[in-house]
Design a protein that fits this description.
Elements lengths: L23 H19 L3 H9 L6 H9 L6 H4 L6 H8 L3 H6 L3 H17 L1
Helix pairs in contact: 2-7
């Protein structure tokens, strides 16, 4: 089975020749960008937030620091890549200890999912 690339290669040049490969540091930055974008958009799913709570990530100070680091996604140069803006709301809420504690309650998470579903029905 052929391994698919996780990052698309550079597009061909206007004259049809292949573009030179990306430098390793640029390739690493692109992978980091895509990984962080994928992660931050996963935060729009309340069931994913519950899973983070169950696995104990939300109680780790290192993880909370990482969430604080991800605040740069609010900048206009980055926010334009976000498809699910609800993730930014949850990113803010995840910095609150009370919200992180409430994610352990399945009823609370079900209510978040119900509200999100209703929002998307009327959006």
């Amino acid at each position: 089975m052929q391994q698919l690339p996780s990052i698309l290669p550079p597009p061909p040049l206007p004259d049809g020749t292949e573009a030179p490969p990306r430098p390793p540091d640029r390739q690493a930055n692109l992978i980091r960008f895509q990984s962080e974008l994928e992660f931050i958009q996963c935060l729009a799913n309340p069931l994913y937030l519950r899973e983070l709570s169950i696995q104990g990530y939300l109680s780790k100070p290192e993880f909370v620091n990482y969430l604080e680091y991800l605040q740069y996604w609010r900048d206009p140069e980055y926010v334009r890549f976000i498809v699910y803006p609800t993730c930014l709301v949850y990113l803010t809420l995840l910095l609150q200890p009370t919200f992180r504690d409430r994610l352990a309650d399945p009823t609370f998470v079900a209510e978040l999912a119900r509200i999100a579903s209703r929002h998307h029905e009327t959006w």
